[in-house]
Amino acid sequence: MDIEVVLGENQKVDAHYKDFVIKTDQPQKAGGDNSAPSPFDLFLASVATCAGFYVKSFCQQRNLPEEGIRIIQKMHRDPDKRMISKVEIDILLPDGFPDKYKTSLIKAAEACTVKKHIADAPEFVVNTK
To answer: What homologous superfamily does CATH list for 37-119?
Structure first.
């Protein structure tokens, strides 16, 4: 499972992974063209979409309606560290969604593998060859 990174024009950096090219750029204020999400934006989106996938799977396995479900992810920043200190995920359910599944739906979203890898972070090793 290797990812090959290709450095592009200006601030563009692309990741070649499986059969995909994942494009990134930086905002204009950081010298980029703002033509694609930044790597950090993709990181944040990966948490939200992973939670969404687990919510979707939960509903599909129980034949529950997915229509109208929305997930809003909010990031709370620590101004001193200039880093995110808290990620809050709200699952907005449509009227009529069965109350008996709400707690289990939260547990499903919390099972997200991206979140699990953040909570039990892997070791990072950087080399030159």
So the answer is: K homology (KH) domain (3.30.300.20)
Task: Decide: 115 and 50 in contact? Cβ < 8 Å.
Answer: yes
Checking DSSP bridges between strand 13-17 and strand 83-92, what pairing results, if any?
unpaired
The pairs formed by 92-98 with CB atoms below 8 angstroms and a separation of 24 or more are 93/68, 93/69, 94/65, 94/67, 94/68, 94/69, 97/64, 97/65, 97/69, 98/64
For 98-124, what is each residue's pLDDT tens digit?
Answer: 999 999 999 999 999 999 999 999 999
Residue type, 32: G
Residue carrying the six token digits 């129980």? 62
**pTM for the structure as a whole:** 0.90
The domain segmentation of the chain, as residue ranges, is 37-119
1 pLDDT more than 90: no
